[in-house]
Design brief:
Nucleotidyltransferase, domain 5, Beta-grasp_dom_sf, iron-sulfur cluster binding, Corrinoid_activation_enz, 6-stranded mixed beta sheet, 7-stranded mixed beta sheet, 25 strands, RACo_C
Length: 523
């Protein structure tokens, strides 16, 4: 056995020799980001090994760690095999998936008795988990937001699936950490209002197919390859079966999945927008890691998901971050220069998804970048970079320097092309063009700061009048609340899900054609 000491938290763990450091950290729930699923591709899981570093660097470490980092003792947790007692320091070296912790008390200065009852709606997102608590199935009184703890094991569903199918132990880990998060949310709510967790009597979970499978500890093997195989039916289990402590015989429910990677989060958006009841043509886009899209024509619904990746949420971006203090979230061209705004009003420390879209759109406008997405050296006036690998947006001499890198633009191109191609595929299925759309709903937290004009300019969204766009907020969570309030019954929600025709893009040659054609910024 080897001893692993973790600083600064002063934890000690024991493991068999030759166990990977990633496995040791995962088993002991240390939140270091394994963004690529532990395949030695992203370089995000840096740790400082202050004792017991054999410096037997893998090829991945030689590629992803600089010589100076290796000299200082940095290693990649996913690549290092522990052969002797070691001491590691994690907090200042790992490029942490910044934890998002936010709570909002909707009803202040109000007390409840032990006789009152509550229900809980959950938007189980790939990146973020949001829970709301309703009093007496009527009024939302508390909202909690947390970073999905699974983010440490991959930023998108593909990485999560890859990690989960390695072993049953990995899948159980992903299941347990999300259940732990649910329990912590319930505990916080109960402590805030001085009530008992047992007063929560029902939970409705909305999420994509992968997240739902992990919440109920179901195998992801069927989602690892096309054609996908999975349980589409609704799920109703006793909370105690998932080790969630609420009212005795309290239930956890999720409606039927729509198909493929399109889950109940998309159904929630459909319930919120009432697309199945609407006349004319409507489009709904949940812009995020999984990129769900729904098109309706006279109530007939088609849906798909696109592997947009985490770029819209700051993932896989060199200086990317979530929409929080320090993030550049808006940009405009003023006097032939790019002016930007920072969340919180302080100095810029990174760029979130909406900021990246604005900046790239501005770069295109100023010809700092050409239509193929290549940074043009001649355009880097005052921001010289001989290799044209980045465009610095902060004033010269700023610390930290914040820049958009060439690789960031490529990530955005992949993401925006995936969304746009998905939209075009569904429009073709219903034989309509974008000009015929009466309404376009934008869902998800990302849409709150989205500049529609800029998003259209880079080819992310259809070029239609801006007054056709409507931001609906967290449609997944709102859909869960609609079910809990009995505005639409659980059974009705299941029937609506079954009415949606799922289009599997991975099987469509036409999707690849549109995707490739949508990569450039020439629309």
């Amino acid at each position: 056995m080897v001893e692993v000491t973790v600083l600064p938290v002063q934890n000690k763990f024991y493991a068999e020799e030759s166990t990977s450091l990633m496995d040791i950290m995962s088993q002991n729930k240390l939140e270091v980001p394994f963004v690529c699923g532990g395949h030695g591709l992203c370089g995000k899981c840096k740790v400082l090994v202050s004792k017991g570093n054999d410096k037997n660097f893998s090829d991945a470490e030689l590629k992803l760690l600089s010589e100076e980092e290796r000299t200082r003792g940095l290693r990649l947790a996913c690549e290092m095999k522990v052969e002797q007692d070691i001491c590691i320091i994690i907090d200042q070296y790992s490029e942490d998936v910044t934890s998002l912790t936010k709570s909002y008390k909707e009803r202040k200065n109000h007390s409840y008795t032990k006789k009152d009852t509550f229900v809980m709606a959950v938007d189980l997102g790939t990146t973020t988990i949001v829970a709301s608590f309703l009093y007496n199935r009527e009024e939302r009184i508390y909202t909690i937001t947390r970073t999905n703890p699974q983010s440490s094991y991959g930023l998108d569903v593909v990485a999560r699936i890859s990690y989960a199918i390695i072993s049953e132990k990995n899948q159980v880990l992903l299941h347990e950490i999300v259940i732990d998060c649910f329990r912590e949310m319930i505990r916080e709510f109960a402590e805030t209002y001085h009530i008992l967790a047992e007063q929560v009597k029902e939970i409705v979970i909305m999420g994509n197919t992968t997240m739902i499978h992990l919440a109920f500890n179901e195998s992801l093997e069927g989602l690892a390859k096309v054609p996908f195989t999975y349980e589409r039916k609704e799920r109703v289990v006793l909370a105690k079966e998932l080790k969630i402590e609420i009212k005795e015989n309290g239930k956890v429910l999720t409606p039927a999945l729509i198909g493929g990677h399109v889950g109940t989060d998309t159904l929630g958006c459909i319930l919120e927008t009432k697309m199945w009841r609407r006349e004319g043509c409507c489009l709904m886009i949940d812009i995020g890691t999984n990129g769900e899209i729904v098109v309706s024509k006279e109530g007939k619904l088609y849906a798909c998901s696109t592997a947009a990746g985490p770029a819209f949420e700051g993932g896989n971006i060199v200086q990317g971050m979530k929409a929080q203090a320090g993030a550049v979230y808006k940009a405009e061209v003023r006097q032939r220069k790019i002016d930007y705004e920072v969340i919180g009003g302080g100095k810029a420390t990174g760029i979130c998804g909406s900021g990246l879209i604005d900046i790239v759109s501005c770069m295109l406008e100023l010809r700092i970048m050409d239509e193929t997405g290549r940074i043009v050296p001649a355009g880097l006036v005052g921001h010289e970079d001989e290799a044209a690998e980045k465009f610095v947006i902060t004033p010269i001499g700023s610390s930290p320097e914040v820049a958009v890198y060439q690789k960031d633009i490529r990530q955005l191109q992949l993401a925006k092309a995936a969304i746009y191609a998905g939209v075009q595929m569904l429009l073709e299925h219903l034989s309509i063009c974008s000009e015929e759309l009466d309404k376009i709903f934008i869902a998800g937290a990302f849409g709150n700061n989205l500049n529609i004009e800029r998003a259209v300019k880079i080819g992310l969204l259809p070029d239609v009048p801006s007054d056709k766009y409507e931001y609906i907020g967290n449609g997944s969570l709102l859909g869960g609340e609609i079910i809990l309030k009995n505005e639409i019954s659980f059974q009705e929600a299941n029937e609506i899900a079954k009415q949606v025709t799922h289009v599997e893009l991975a099987e469509q040659e036409r999707f690849q054609q549109i995707f490739i054609a949508s990569m450039d910024f020439n629309r």
